[in-house]
Every structure is written in C-alpha cells, then in structure tokens.
Amino acid sequence: MPQFVNFGGFQQFGNFFQPIQNAFQPFNNNVVQPFMQGVMHMFGMEDHGNTTPKPKFKDDGTESPQSTGKDELFPRDCGRDTEKGTGKLCFPDGQLCQDRVNKAGVHQFGRHYYYFSWLDSDFRTANTKWSWFNARNYCRKRCMDLVSFETQQEYDYIKGFIDPSVPYFWTSGRLCDFDGCDRPDLFPKNINGWFWSANQVPMPPTNGSRFQDWSPTGGFRPPRRQPDNREEVQLHGETESCMAVLNNYYGDGIKWHDVACNHEKPIICEDVDGHLNFARQTFPNLRIP
Predict the structure, then answer these.
(1) Whether pTM exceeds 0.85
(2) Which of 61, 116, 226, 243 qualifies as a cystine partner to 214, CB 3.0-4.6 A?
(3) What is the β-pairing status of strands 201-202 and 144-146?
C-alpha cells in the first residue's frame, strides 16, 4: 500500500473500495505512475459510440506538494485538459489550506469548514462553474473535497444556503462503474454502487430507508426515480456517474440527481481530515486549522 493513502483518507476504510484506493497510487514515491484504466472511465474519458475515439486519460501526478498560496480557479499544475485528455491530481497547497478559514464564502458546521463558491466575494469566482473532476481539484488545493452528506443534520445545514439563485451544485457522490467495481455486493449498480468519493464511504442503497434524498422524478416521461442515467439511456450521451443536488429543477424541491461528470456547476467544498493531516505533516511551519 503506498505511503500516500493517509492523504486520501483511505486507511480507515480497509479494502472496501480497494480499486479506488489503488487508483491513487500516482501519489506514492514514484509520483509519475499513470492512473489505472478504470479511472479513465471514472473521469468520463470513455467513448460512447462516437466514431472518433476520445483521447485516453493519463495522470502523471503533481510533482510535489507546494505552499504557494496561488488561488487559481483551474490550477496550472493540476486539473484536466479536455483537449489533450490529460490531467493531474492536486496535492494540497499548504498556504491555501491555512488560509481557507478566512476565504469569503466559508462557513463552519461542527468540526468542518465548508466553502460555497457562489458566496465568494470575488465576482469571477462566484460565477465560475467546474466539471466534477476539476471541482474536486479546486477543493483539494485547500485541503478540502466536494461535499459529502452523511447525516441529515449536515444536509439540512447545507440546504439553508440554497436559494432560487442556486440551481444546482456538485457533491462528491460517485457511481462505482469503472474497472474493479465488479463485486457482487455493488450490484445492481444504480442501487448499491454509489459512494462518497471524498472519504470513500459507501452511500446507502438508493431505494432504502437509510438517510438519502434521491429525487422521485427527473427528465424521463413518465418520471423515473433517481438515479436514472437518463443522459446515456435516452440521449445516448455520457453516463450519469456523478451526483449533484438540483434545486427544484423538475419541480421536486432540493433533491439528489445523477448527472454526467462533464457538466459544469457551482461547488461546495468540505474539509477532509486526511488532507489536513497530510498538509500539517508536510508543512510543519504553517499553522493549519
């Protein structure tokens, strides 16, 4: 197991999502190992019937952790170049991790800080939308990740920031539909195959009684309960492998929907303990809250 697993927060979850854990091996001592083939699918680079294949996703890793304080919407040392089909995962930036608590749009709930992009005081940032992968990288730069809803209380708190001006936003919810996700207990995928990618915690069954808020409707007619993978099934587009919260988009209130990962949306970032611990150990001269 690579040394880097503490950064991703994988260790406490054992082998539950071993395929995903293995996907983060670019951050071991070699740093430049490419992602496994399954993660190419994870980031939406697969071909869906197009005559011209899309470029393959290859991750060559951010070369080293940094503490620059450069707050870029699309960091130049990591992120995804959709034209070239290449990308890099972001290490936390020590200075951005330290400064995150003073960033406009940040609020605290319990032990975690949350960043709401549309509440940023910078007009350009407040109006920026990210694809799911680039959104995660923007959050990771500041020791955060896309938000995960593991309790009703946390979810209710977040919903308090949603008004009619916020039509949707990304979460870290992800469908395990790439190579290595063929375990029997993950089937059927649309029910048992979802997890919070920020901390590798499995999400409850989408049709169960445990806490979840999947919408009972969507774009299909007659309506189908979410997740419905409508974009691929009906429109022959991308697989709806990422989870967003939509604000009454289908007259259903604030609800969870599966969405293709290449769509662009505002974001909510949430502290990740593993990222924070990694940054504190890597940058001991900084006081990272």
Answers:
(1) no
(2) 226
(3) unpaired
